[in-house]
Amino acid sequence: HRAALPACKWPLRAQPHSQVFIRPGAVIVTHPMEVVDGMDGVGAIYILNTRSRKREPIARILPPVRQPHAHWGVPDAESRMVIGNGFLVASLPTETVRAQPDSGAVYFFWLRDGKQFSRLTHPHQKPHTRFGQAMALSSSHFVVAAPDETGVFWGDGAVYAWPVGPTGAVRLFVRAVRRASPTPCRSCGFGRIASISGHMLAVACPSEPVGGVQDGGATFLLELLRPLD
Q: What's the distance, Cα to Cα, between the start and end of the chain in Å?
């Protein structure tokens, strides 16, 4: 399909841990180690236009709150960036929200121009939850993890799910469904890694004790049955 794209070379230098994603009409390039305002590892996300010969990016998205070593846009196993139908979502799990340290926040941007159109924070404004440490998106649900949230035990973690409508839009006005670990434990980090396919959600709990072994780790498969409406 190379002939379908205009010949264009964007002036972006490769950086450690950079990744490239292709979506209709746009190429998304992540630079999670980029230096911003003299701070190391703040990170940046670039949206490039595949339908134009212009060399300039459509947008350069920086984290709304500058933090050194935030690694904005890291799309690895602990996915802090996901791409939907015409939009992308990036998170800052260590952001201070309403004087709550490490509460975390999630930001939504349009792919067409890189402009922010929504911000999502922890439903209960708790400190030290790291809301947004992991995210997952499917055709039916958008999931945000808060692996350091304190529920039954300190730092046992939880995940929150919002429904996705037929057009691919996340219905943030709907109350989130909360899921906690079936076997909660202290500092088990439920939700440090999350993946979703349809209504099925896989959540990793890396510090879960298993068979008497501390930090043995476990993965739980959960079903999100809440209807869209």
A: 39
Tell if the pTM clears 0.70, that is, is over it: yes
- CA 102-143-49 angle, 5° bins: 95
Burial class of residue 143, CB neighbours in 10 A (0-12, 13-18, 19+): buried
* Better-predicted residue by pLDDT, 210 or 153: 153
Sequence-distant (6+) residues with CB within 8 A of 100 are 122, 125, 126, 127, 128
